Amino acid sequence: xxITFKCHACPDVVMLENLAQYLVGxxxxxxxxxxxxxxxxxxxxxxxxxAAIQTDKKERAEHEGHFHEGEEGHDRHEIPIGLAQRAFxxxxxxxxxxxENTDVLWGI
Length: 108
What we know:
Layout: E1 2-7, E2 10-16, H1 17-26, E3 35-37, H2 42-64, H3 83-100, E4 104-106
Antiparallel strand pairs: 1-2, 1-4, 3-4
Helix pairs in contact: 2-3
């Protein structure tokens, strides 16, 4: 299922439900049928999401040393897309909403 996040400050952001649930959980919300991240909650939400992204980047950097790309006897590993790439549209929306002092909604 697709979830559409709406905000007056920027275009809609559409993502798969499992990613939406994960990102909304990071910022301290539950993905219900309808929901809102109110303008007064945006500072905390942005801080939490940025912290999660930094943690993910650090963990990914530590794991990069374990990939043996191109070495003989080792299979090629695909490095999965990181949280920073997956969360960018949502984080961008949160920042735009903060700038315009407006809410982020879903399920409307």
